[in-house]
Known about the structure:
The protein is an all-alpha fold and 246 residues long. It is built from eleven helices and no strands. It has a single domain, classed as Fic-like fold (Orthogonal Bundle), CATH 1.10.3290.
Amino acid sequence: MDFSYLDLLKEKLEQYRPLPNAVVDNLHEELVLRWTYHSNAIEGNTLTLKETKVALEGITVGGKTLREHFEVINHRDAILFLDTLVRKSEVLSEWQIKNIHQLILKNIDDENAGRYRTINVTIAGAQHLPPDFLHVPSQMTALMHEYQAEASKRHPVEQAARLHCDLVKIHPFTDGNGRTARLLMNLELMKSGFPAAILPVERRLAYYETLDKAHIERDYVPFFSLISEIVVRSFAPYWYALGIKP
Length: 246
């Protein structure tokens, strides 16, 4: 695929860096809210965008489960952890992946948080069947080896999207694989200078279909196209905040 347009958008944004602190703080607050809402909603969390904002402020929303509140707080904490990793420019590792997952399931499923699954699982509605749990550790090691070997050959957006797709294919955890995969994708995007890309819950069907196509037919193009589309959208808040016409 041709990712040159994304490179042009990135170069345009680079011209305005460093951004004013007020702009950075405002954009980050909005990012945490929208990213947390959409990623959780994709997985079935019923909190609305406004309710998610209230939950992030530490206020309990009536009629909603404790788990849904923890999913909001945990996701925010995972984003803050990503911010630390980006500042340190650390090379991606299984340790990082497990730590992100541990944050996602904190106070929800502490027994399995940050641990590879020890049971076989299915992905609801998908044709693809994840590997036997006995193969998960070796497949995750192979994934990391491939990721590092191809890092200099692939465009950063392709690299981030492929990591997302391949992690979901392995499905290394009993729960929280989707949220972890989307966090990892954005970690790699941000390390490469791109804004975090939010996959809207409204695109959930296309998201699942393109993932399944990549897993079953090894055709990554539709998934890459979907991710490229949301990466383009991720620049819009910056143009608005800076008063720039895209």
